[in-house]
């Protein structure tokens, strides 16, 4: 199995975060930047919902799709909604994603039984 570079993973995460933050700002009218944004969990909630649903149902988030990545189970299929919820919840905590194995699987991937692969 080919591993995906950390740069592509971070790029996909950055794209997903920007999309979620802008979506949250557009839908709720909350601040995207400034002091109001730092006190709000609305962008984080939007990120959680968007990434969980897309990853669980399609196998990739918008950022992952743009950068040619997918999240799959050991059989190569999408991980499903429940595992995507677990994976994204741990990703939102940040630390589980930073602790990686030799094959670049973070704790969030180990807990969800998933891996990131090229499309």
Describe this protein's structure.
This protein is 60% helix and 7% strand. The longest helix is centred in the N-terminal third of the chain and has 23 residues, at 6-28. It is mostly helical and 119 residues long. It starts with 5 loop residues before the first helix and ends with a strand. It has a two-stranded antiparallel sheet. The chain has helices spanning 6-28, 35-38, 42-58, 62-66, 81-92, 95-98, 107-112; strands spanning 69-72, 115-118. The chain contains 7 helices and 2 strands; from the N terminus they run H-H-H-H-E-H-H-H-E. It is globular and about 45 Å long. It has one domain (6-118). The mean pLDDT is 88.
Keywords:
119 residues, mainly alpha, two-stranded antiparallel sheet, 7 helices, 7% strand, globular
Calculate the mean pLDDT score and round it.
88
For the biggest β-sheet, the strand order reads 1-2
Helicity, as a percent range? 55-70%
| Radius of gyration (Å) | 14 Å
Taken from the alpha-carbon principal axes, the silhouette is globular
Low-confidence stretches: none
Q: Please give the largest β-sheet.
A: 2 strands, antiparallel
Q: Give the domain tally.
A: 1
Structural class: mainly alpha
Percent of residues in β-strands: 5-15%
Strand tally, please?
Answer: 2
Number of helical regions: 7
| N to C succession of SSEs | HHHHEHHHE
Terminal CA distance: 12 Å
